[in-house]
Amino acid sequence: MKASLLFRIASVLLVLFALGHTFGFLHFKPPTPEGLAVRDAMNNVHFRVGGGSFSYGGFYIGFGLFVTAYLLFSAVLAWQISSMTIRAPQAVTSIGWSLFAVQLASLVLSLIYFSLPPAVFSALIAVCLGVGTWMSRGSARQ
Predict the structure, then answer these.
(1) How far apart are CA 67 and CA 7, in angstroms?
(2) Per-residue pLDDT averaged across 12-38, rounded?
(3) In this predicted structure, what is the pLDDT of residue 31?
(4) Cα–Cα distances in Å, from 11 out to 54, 92, 97, 98?
(5) Backbone angles phi, psi at 54, to 5 degrees
(6) Interatomic CA distance for residues 124 and 20, integer angstroms
């Protein structure tokens, strides 16, 4: 398997991760009355900061969409790196390892704070990025 294919697989997985994340957090309904009360309080309690009115529910949605944006950016970056493995493999190393490190952090955070599906996505993406970056190092030396 070529490094470029691994980066493209990672890119597709990142898009699927973004879609699943966005759908999941926008459609999640707390299963208990206590959870519903917390969600309602997050949405109904407003506070003023810098002349604007905000709620923790708004922050929750904003941060969730922020994560979606970064997952999609990472997908585009992984796709671009796949082309770089052929044209400029020496340029792949630092970007590839950085993206790999972000996915390892995502894996750890998913294991601590979330559920199995995001951890599995993070692990699969990390493997593709790590192996792809490792393989592209060999191309750069040739």
Answers:
(1) 20
(2) 95
(3) 93
(4) 34, 15, 15, 15
(5) -130, 165
(6) 15
Residue 142 banded pLDDT, cuts 50, 70, 90: very low
Residue 47 pairs in a beta bridge with: 54
pTM equals 0.88
Closest by alpha carbon to 134, among 86, 100, 104?
Answer: 100
- Mean pLDDT, the chain, as a whole number? 92
Cβ-proximal residues to 53 (8 Å cutoff; 6+ apart), any chain: 46, 47
Query: What are the residue boundaries of the structural domains of the chain, listed by start?
Result: 3-141
Dihedral angle of Cα 106, 107, 113, 117, to the nearest 10 degrees: 110
Contacts of 17 (CB under 8 A, 6+ apart): 71, 118, 121, 122, 125
- Whole-angstrom distance between the N-terminal and C-terminal Cα of the chain? 18
Write the burial class of residue 94 (CB in 10 Å: 0-12 exposed, 13-18 middle, 19+ buried). Answer: exposed
